[in-house]
Design a protein that fits this description.
Distance between the termini: 65 Å
Oligomer: single chain
Radius of gyration: 30 Å
Structural class: mainly alpha
Largest sheet: 5 strands, mixed
Number of strands: 5
């Protein structure tokens, strides 16, 4: 074919500068091309090139990130371009070695460029697919430690999973260290039965690590991970204002809730119950939010007040200050030196109708930390209500003048 669109030549590379024209070529070639160029219809002998979107500069990096094309081919002087070109074993090995060196230095884009050239020229070559999967798992780790964008994580895992599956489907064995990676990717991709079958076969070799991972999958760890990613940035914590959900956000929160319900049914634990409660609160279902936050609170170890603090906030949102009062007392007693918890107790007392108790309690909080502006503002608020300068609030909305 004669390629269309803006491109340039840099050494052996024929570089496409925009994604729309780069898409003339697929990212993955699954059939082998010729080793030699042959004679073009025009009578000339084509030369070797690498058809790619990899080049210099931020704009080219963006093109590469969006469409990482790298395949060896032939270019004739008449403009005809063919791909893929089959690589001999020595060429493939040299590219794998170069890619591994880049990966060790953290240069994942350079590593991918080399590994994609191998897999596109020799689809099914295990070392190419294993290393390309490793690149995408490396990117997954970076994303998980950074912005945690669910859609990006799903895409990265899908690419890694497909390349590991290509190795297995081709009849090759995965390295022992990558068996648990593949099982994790299968579980996160929705194939828990496949992950468990893989781990069951690997148990004699991997022993306790395979058994432990299988147990975590059965307990819903993958479901919890997916839900927590989907809820990233959407959970409203104590003291934060609610943000309305658009249609897309509601659909995603709904999916997260379904995953968490399943995970909690498999294994009742604080983290899952807490996140499910917060998801329901974000969704706007306060009754289910309170139910699950009560579960989390009862599963909380001594000294941990996160479940109780969020339960109190949900109860106040629901206008149930009297129900929130014993929980607020309990968590304040768990951490008697935490002025913030004592101040929160004062607010609950106020909303429960105990003005004198609120005055005494907020004074205690201020004595514990006289520099805390929140303590001071709550004290001023309580005193203004006691002096009649402000109406007595009966709900959190009235207190916050919403």
């Amino acid at each position: 074919m004669v390629p269309r669109g803006p491109m340039s030549r840099a050494g052996e590379r024929l570089i496409f500068h925009d994604v729309s024209h780069a898409r003339q070529f697929p990212l993955e070639f699954t059939s082998r091309g010729p080793t030699g160029p042959g004679i073009c219809d025009c009578g000339a002998v084509p030369e070797r090139v690498v058809i790619t979107t990899a080049g210099e500069g931020p704009e080219q990096l963006a093109t590469w990130s969006a469409y990482p094309l790298a395949v060896d081919g032939w270019l004739c002087r008449c403009g005809k371009l063919t791909a893929p070109r089959f690589l001999e074993q020595a060429e493939a090995t040299a590219l794998v070695d170069a890619g591994v060196a880049h990966a060790r230095e953290g240069r994942l884009d350079d590593a991918e460029y080399h590994f994609r050239r191998v897999t596109n020229a020799w689809w099914g070559y295990p070392l190419g697919h294993l290393n390309l999967a490793s690149v995408y798992m490396g990117r997954e780790r970076r994303e998980a430690e950074g912005t945690k964008r669910h859609a990006v994580l799903v895409w990265l895992r899908d690419v890694a999973r497909r390349h590991l599956a290509t190795v297995v489907d081709g009849g090759s064995e995965l390295p022992t260290a990558m068996v648990t990676d593949f099982a994790r990717l299968l579980a996160l991709g929705g194939d828990e039965p496949g992950a468990l079958r893989l781990l069951d076969r690997a148990t004699p070799e991997l022993g306790e690590s395979a058994r432990k991972q299988a147990e975590q999958i059965r307990e819903g760890r993958a479901l919890f991970t997916l839900a927590s990613e989907l809820l990233q940035g959407r959970i409203r914590l104590h003291g934060m204002r609610a943000t309305p959900l658009d249609a897309t956000a509601r659909e995603e929160v709904g999916r997260a809730i379904a995953w968490l319900e399943e995970a909690l049914a498999r294994n009742s634990n604080f983290a899952t119950a807490w996140l499910l409660g917060k998801a329901y609160q974000t969704w706007g279902d306060l009754q289910r939010a309170i139910h699950n936050l009560e579960i989390a609170h009862h599963l909380t170890a001594d000294g941990n007040v996160n479940g109780g603090r969020e339960l109190v906030a949900a109860l106040l949102d629901a206008g149930r200050a009297r129900d929130a009062l014993p929980v607020a007392r309990e968590i304040a007693e768990r951490k008697p030196n935490d002025a913030g918890l004592v101040c929160n107790l004062a607010l609950v007392l106020l909303l429960a109708g105990d003005l004198q108790g609120a005055r005494v309690t907020v004074a205690r909080a201020c004595a514990m930390d006289a520099t805390d502006r929140i303590n001071m503002s709550v004290r001023d608020l309580v005193e203004a209500i006691a002096a009649g300068r402000r109406p007595y609030p009966r709900t959190l909305a009235e207190l916050e003048r919403r």
